[in-house]
Amino acid sequence: MKTSVQLTTLAALTTTVLAACSPQTLLPLGNGNQAALNTGVNSFATSQSGEQIVPGKVLVKFRAGRGGTINSASLAQMGVQRSRSLGAVKNNLEVMAITGKQSPERIATELEKNPAIEFAEPVFTVPFPKVLRASEDTPPADNATYPNDALFPRQYAHQVAKSQGGWAIHRGNPKVVLGIVDSGLDINHVDLKAKVVGTYNSADGNPESVDHVGHGTHVAGISAALTNNTLGVAGVAPECSILAVKVAPGNSSSPTTDGIANGILYAMDKGAQVINLSLGSRRESQAITDAVKQALARNVVVVVAMGNDSGNIKSWPAAVPGVIAVGSTDNRDQRSRFSNYGDWITVTAPGSDILSTFPLNTNLIGQKEYGAISGTSMAAPFVTGLAGLIRSKYPGLSNVDVKRAIEMSTDDLGKPGFDPEFGFGRVNVAKALSRAGELATASVRR
After folding, report:
1. Looking at per-residue confidence, does 33 or 291 come out higher?
2. pLDDT tens string 298-345
3. Which of 218, 160, 252 is nearest to 29 (CA)?
4. Catalytic (active site) residue 182
5. What ranges in 89-237 are assigned the alpha helix state H?
6. Domain 4-48+129-442 is classified in which CATH homologous superfamily?
7. Which H or E run includes 380?
8. Catalytic residue among 149, 163, 182, 409
9. Which of 46, 173, 236, 295 reaches 20 to 30 Å from 68, CA-CA?
10. How far is CA 164 from CA 157, 355, 407, 440, in A?
11. Which of 209, 252, 377, 409 is catalytic?
12. What is the pLDDT of residue 129?
C-alpha cells in the first residue's frame, strides 16, 4: 500500500530540484515544502567561486618510507605539528596544525623544500551546492512487473538506461559495497536502512552520519535504494550494500579537502569496491587527487560527477585520469543544460529530474522522504550502481575492465563515437552487463 507521503509525491512530480557540485536549481516536490522553500533557499547558497583556504592547517604527503624521518622538533621549527593521519598511516597523508598565525600557503611552500615531503598544500573548502530556482517536467515511465516500488513508474532513468534488462542478468551482491562519500545519509530511511553496512564522519572522526544537506541521502538512493519492497524508489544496484561516509563536520554544508581525502581513503580501506564522488572543485587538491589515485591502485572503481557549470569547465577530481567522469542527460536523451563537458568526460547518465530518497529530518534542500532533483551529482551514482552490478556478477574483473565495459556498451549520442559532450555515450545497464561478461570470458581465456 502507498503511504500518504508517496501518494502526495506521485501527484506532485511536476517540480524539480537541481543539486550537484556548483550552481544548482531547486523547486519542491510536494509534501508541503513550498512555503519553507520560498523562505529558506538562501541559507543554502554559497558563492560560485566556492573554495576558501582554511586557516591553521596544511595537508602533507610524505614520500614512501619517509614519514618517520622528520621529528617533532624539526616540524616545530617549520611552524607546524602533526595533527592526524588521513586514512591508514601507510597512506602517508597527514594534516599538520600550524602553531602560529602564519599563512597556510607560506607554510606549505616551506614544507615542500624538505626532501621527505612529496607535496604540501593549504586545506580549502569544497562547498556543497548553491541552490537556485527552476522548473522542469518529468514524464512518467512505463509500469513494470518488477520492481513493485510505488514510485518506480516515475523513475524514467531506469527505462531510458535499460535497468530492467540489466536486472534480468544480475541484481547485485550484498558483499559488494558502494562507498557514498558525500554529505551523510539518513540511516532510518525505510528505503536505505537495510542496505547500510557502515557510517563514518571523515571530518570529525566518528560514526555520525546525519545528513543536514540532503544531498548524500539522495545520491545513495539512486545507487542502491532497497528495491521491490512495494515502497518508494528502486536503486540501480538493488542488492549491493552502502557505506556512508560523511565528509563535512557536524551540520556544516561546506566540507574541506582534508575531510574529502580522508573519506575516500576510509572507504578504500574499509573495502568499498566502488566509490561515488558527487562533488568537485575547479581548484585541484593534490590530497584528493592522491587519495583517488590510491583507490584506483587498490582496484577500486571511482565514479565522479562532471559538475554543473554548463560549459567546458574542468572540475576535480572528475579530471583525474582513471576515474569514470559522468555528465548528465535528460529525459529526451539530450545533454542536460547544466552539465559540464570536455575531453576528460567518460560517459553520461540520466541526471535531470531524478527521483530518489531524502532524509526524514529537515535538510537544506528542503524535501523529506522522497523528491526529484537534477545534476551531474545524480548522474554519477547511477553509474556507481551500474559498476556495483558488474562487480557483483563478475568479481574477477579489474576496475579498468569495469570502466571499459561501461564505456564500450553505451548508447552513442551526439557525434558518432567519443565526443566531449557525451563521452562514449549514455550508459545502458543491460548492455554493460553483457559486455562485462565478454570481457570476463576473454580474461579467463588469457
Report:
1. 291
2. 999 999 999 999 999 999 999 999 999 999 999 999 999 999 999 999
3. 218
4. yes
5. 104-111, 156-160, 163-167, 215-224
6. Peptidase S8/S53 domain (3.40.50.200)
7. helix 376-393
8. 182
9. 295
10. 11, 17, 19, 22
11. 377
12. 56
**Given this model, what pLDDT does residue 140 score?**
55
Residue with cell 616551506: 110
> By the 8 A CB rule, do 117 and 270 touch?
no
Which secondary structure element, helix H or strand E, spans residue 122, and what is its range? strand 117-124
343 vs 388: CA distance, rounded Å: 25
Q: Does residue 132 surpass a pLDDT of 60?
A: no
Classify domain 53-124 by CATH number.
Answer: 3.30.70.80
77 exposed, middle or buried (CB, 10 Å; 0-12, 13-18, 19+)?
Answer: exposed
Where in the chain are all domains bearing CATH 3.30.70.80? 53-124
- Given the residues 170, 189, 215, 218, select the one marked as catalytic: 215
| pLDDT for residue 127 | 83
Enter the DSSP assignment of 223.
Answer: H
The yes-or-no answer on residue 343 being catalytic is no
User: Would you call 212 a catalytic residue per the annotation?
Assistant: no
Mind listing the pLDDT tens digit for each residue in 410-435? Answer: 999 999 999 999 999 999 999 999 99
Tell me the C-alpha distance between 323 and 291, whole Å: 12
